[in-house]
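User: For my dataset I need records formatted as: sequence, then structure tokens, nothing else. Please produce one.
Assistant:
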Amino acid sequence: MSRLANPAFWAGKRVLLTGHTGFKGSWARLWLTHMGAEVTGYALPPLAEPSLHTLLAAAETTSEHLEDIRNGDALAAVMRDSDPEIILHMAAQPLVRESYRTPVETFDVNVMGTVRLLEAARSAPSLKTIVVVTTDKVYSNDESGRHFPEDAALGGHDPYSGSKAACELVVQTWRDSFLRDRGIKVATARGGNVLGGGDFSVDRLVPDIVRAALSGETLDIRSPMATRPWQHVLDCLNGYFVFAEALHRGETDRAALNFGPSPTERQIPVRDVAAAIQTAMGLPAEWRDTSAEDQPREMQTLGLDPALAERTLSWTARLTQEQAIDWTARWYDGWRRGTAARDLSFGQIDAFMRG
């Protein structure tokens, strides 16, 4: 059984969580506070409507700062006031298609935002650990279908991927030049394609399914045969948390780890994910193939090799890809039928931790 985040470790820990208003950030904030961490959130106001951040009423239990990650002065002030022991950096421009529309801003947010954060972190007196979340897309993907290990070449065929690969180099530079000498552990976490309830972003598969279901419109799928390392948001976050714990305790000095489903699992194409979620929500498995339309290039195959995380942390995905799909569908189905997002989310966190 995979190692779980330890509530006893997180209880009372001062954590600066950037990107706390996003999809993964909202789940991270909820779980961390559930374990007793003192979380300070730093992010822009949520872009989606509705947003999981709002549905969870995050501001009730979190000290939050709605600021731009590129604002060095604001970061320095928050760093001084919150005096974090651990930083989890999730703030980003996270969308591939948006990166084609706004490439300069994508690089500015993802690269220079990380630079500003790490520079501000140099002045945090109690800081011991930083985990910077990047992506499975940091690898130079040759579309061979292989599962990339951590030592594979970095690259990027689109502005989002390229910006995240550049972010990896930024982390390495600040670690080697400034932070290691202060005894601060700094590493990157490369997660697979995350599924889970409460994602309402544009240009993402599951939110598109939910929007189509709520509106009664036909779902459009632009890459029905594309495969991704699908995993539930709680599996991914569990990896980040366990990695942070191990770094903080001096159990590892790994610079980067992959977190994704086992390579032995079947590669599930987008169309099958869509059909499974629609069926689980009691909807007809219907969609329209828009792959022939002119659109930006996206990789058709992508896989991660998480073997190093298993050897280093005893971490593996606790949910299969089919279970991740089912948990996601049940969250959205419960929400559209009137169950509160907080109840659905707490219920899944508790079920996940029970194993």
